[in-house]
Write a structure and sequence with these properties.
It contains three helices and 18 strands. By secondary structure, it is mainly beta. The strands form four sheets. Strands 1, 5, 6, 8, 9 and 10 form a six-stranded mixed sheet that branches. The protein has a five-stranded mixed sheet with strand order 2-3-11-4-7, with no helix packed on it. A five-stranded mixed sheet has the order 12-17-18-15-16. It is globular and about 55 Å long.
Length: 265
């Protein structure tokens, strides 16, 4: 579906898992960049969703521009040129949301507001190992950047993780349950984290795969050849990022201490 904003009025469409509002702002002078502004809010209470990751994707869903919402949920992001683009928003604790294709014209300014639907953490019968706030603080310090600004960032723990374990016949199936592609070939094991969780509309396929993703256990590199030897019973948290999968055991210390690691692959 292609949405072409017009000079008057407001179009409201359902997109992804939340409400998406598109509006055309005052046109900018022709020499200015193609700018998209908006706000990210909670679909249930209308509160701002701060620090969300915002991405401009081309028609092939390759990221071409990245920005972050401020504490009040406002963001500004620039499209690289004229054409049709998707806008994709993600935040830990919420389902992702994606706009339809938006036609961007030279020098235009556009407004796209997102409402993200909270992703509930089911506590029964399993307790969550770490809160969203603790996990985000740890990853921010560990990675040196806001993890919400890394396309495809997803966290699995609690019941969702246990469901993946129960559904899987082996470790390869377990990763695939979490939308991480694993392929076994003559040259070894290829792990590629899928960085777009939503399937392309009408295609039945998911986003691009990147072979050569790294696997880490409590911060230590884990050779992909050992993927089937990982003891899933001890895994309490799985973090999926583009090009990397981080796993943490139930006894992992989430207190940040530079250079300190507990356990190894």
């Amino acid at each position: 579906m292609t949405v072409r904003p017009h000079t008057r009025g407001r179009a409201a469409v359902r997109a992804g898992l939340g409400l998406l509002l598109l509006r055309l702002l005052v046109p900018a002078p022709p020499a200015s960049a193609q700018e998209i502004r908006g706000r990210v809010t909670d679909a249930e209470n209308g509160e701002p969703v701060g620090m969300a990751g915002v991405f401009v994707l081309d028609r092939d869903r390759n990221p071409v521009s990245t920005a972050g919402a401020d504490l009040q949920g406002f963001f500004t992001i620039t499209a690289p040129g004229t054409g049709e683009y998707y806008l994709y928003v993600q935040r830990l604790g919420y389902f992702e949301n994606e706009s339809p294709l938006v036609a961007v014209q030279e020098g235009g300014q556009y407004g796209i507001d997102f409402e993200l639907r909270p992703e509930p953490i089911r506590l029964d019968p399993l307790e969550v190992s770490v809160s969203n706030e603790q996990l985000e603080t740890y990853l921010w310090r560990e990675l040196g950047e806001n993890p919400n600004g890394i396309l495809g960032y997803r966290v699995y723990q609690g019941v969702r993780l246990e469901e993946a374990k129960l559904s899987a016949h082996d470790n390869t199936d377990f990763f695939r349950e979490l939308y991480v592609e694993v392929q076994h070939g003559t040259e070894g094991v290829c792990v590629g984290a899928i960085f777009i969780a939503l399937p392309e509309r009408g295609s039945g396929r998911f986003g691009e795969r990147e072979c050569g993703a790294s696997i880490y256990m409590n911060g230590y590199p884990c050779p992909t050849a050992h993927i089937e030897s990982i003891d899933l019973d001890h895994i309490a948290v799985v973090v999926r990022l583009r090009g990397a999968v981080y796993m943490y055991t139930r006894d992992f210390d989430w207190t940040f201490r530079p250079g300190f690691r507990t356990g190894a692959c």
